[in-house]
Predict the 3D structure of the following.
Amino acid sequence: MTLDLSLLPDGGLQWLIGSGEHSGIVLSSRIRLARNLAGFAFPTRAREGERLRVLQHLRDAAPRVPTLHGAAFVRVDECLPQERMVLFERHLVSRELAGLDRGSEAPSAGAIFVTGEAGLMVNEEDHLRLQVFRSGFDVPGALRLAETMDREIGAALPYAWHREFGFLTACPTNTGTGLRASVLIHLPGLVLTQEIGKVLQGLQHMGLTYRGLYGEGSDVLGNFFQVSNQTTLGRSEDDLADQLVRVVRRVIEREEEARKVLARDAGYIIEDKLWRAYGTLRHARNLPADEAMNLLSGLRLAAGLNLVSGLSVYTLNKLLIFSQSAHLSQAAGRALTDSEANLARARYVRQVLANEARLPG
Amino acid sequence: MVCDTCRERDAIVHLTQIVESAVSQIHLCEQCAAARGIETTVGAPKHPLGDFLDAVQQQAVQLPGDAARCSSCGTSLRDFRASGRLGCAHCYGAFEQSLRELLRRVHGSTRHEGWRYETGDPDVMVREVTLLELRERLQRAVDGEAFEEAAGLRDQIRGME
């Protein structure tokens, strides 16, 4: 199967536009709901035929789900490894659905429905993973859309449900609401002022947890953190989302304070660091992925401190996604080796900056 | 890169210090960083399932009988302990006692307080779900060449239809 990314509404990346509140610091807000269909074994226990029947039920029901109207449908298990990687780099599929945990084999009958803001993963750990992304800091907006989609799908197909335990999931860590509310947040100020340890510890005391850019098991790179609720049972969806919003609001304030401290107490050092990051990105010929991520983090901070103008949040977001290896391979029309990707990454970043960054004297 | 303090272990903590506008870099291993009171927060985050599986492990010691199986999908408590995943919705009933305790440890509660799931006539719903389940069991029985069981299930389905 050849994946035609142009068929995905907004490339499945509407959140890149950088329109929401605090979008310089909070890249995106996401709601994920884990659901299973009644009457079928959960995907890891189900055999291939049963997984296919679950998928068929979903395809039959999709026309009765207004939030999925106009959605692109992709059979992830029929995509090439590089195409699955592109979907993963866009956060449209999980590591598990992309088959990244099991060599290059994707789980059978794995599929996604994608609209600009909402999506649905089928036959992941649970039969359904509803996903909504919003640009910037807008957890309540994402939750409302997820609630609507959930109600529509639940009316079209019977969910696995228990009066006491709520929505039933394959892993009991998701039982109840099945909700994971998260924000992808950039905290270079707190890292540079070494406040980050205390902040992350504080999150855990408040019932939240954090991960790297690509969720569970991924490293923290470029000072990007995914902060989300830890538990799913015993509190309502609104309570869980409110708690995340309250705590993240405080984290944003502390990040802003840290940036002020940096600008005041270490102005020229920070400025020098950021200009070096900009210089490397603007002129390097060979740019490994981890280095690019750290330099792009510096550039984002530079833009946040108004040291570089003409760089929109959209451009900064786009650079993060499109400078990743599978995207570069996709653009080149063939699988690039690591060293080829490093050259292509440097070329891509140089071009974007040449066209879009304006420099003060 | 080796640790600046012990010069033995690999440095995993890289600190940039700014003191009176002078910048210095220190590289430390986890132990030496801890000795200086520096938290190594950027390591692998603790996964909630870690606590959860520990809880299952502890419970397995208290409650033998992990060979108990879910009659619907065949998952045993032992399978669950190995994978951390249940096989189907009926596992929640089959392992209810163990799960109730685990849910309490993981979430601090066993009672869902969120959105209720109510669609249409509950009787119609139960019938639909039962039919779906019977059809799946019939398919499994046919695949496993358990023809006697398959015939019984087929009759049950016909009766309901």
Remarks:
- The mean pLDDT of chain A is 90.
- The first strand of chain A starts at residue 26 and ends at 35.
- Residues 310 and 358 of chain A are 5 Å apart (CA to CA).
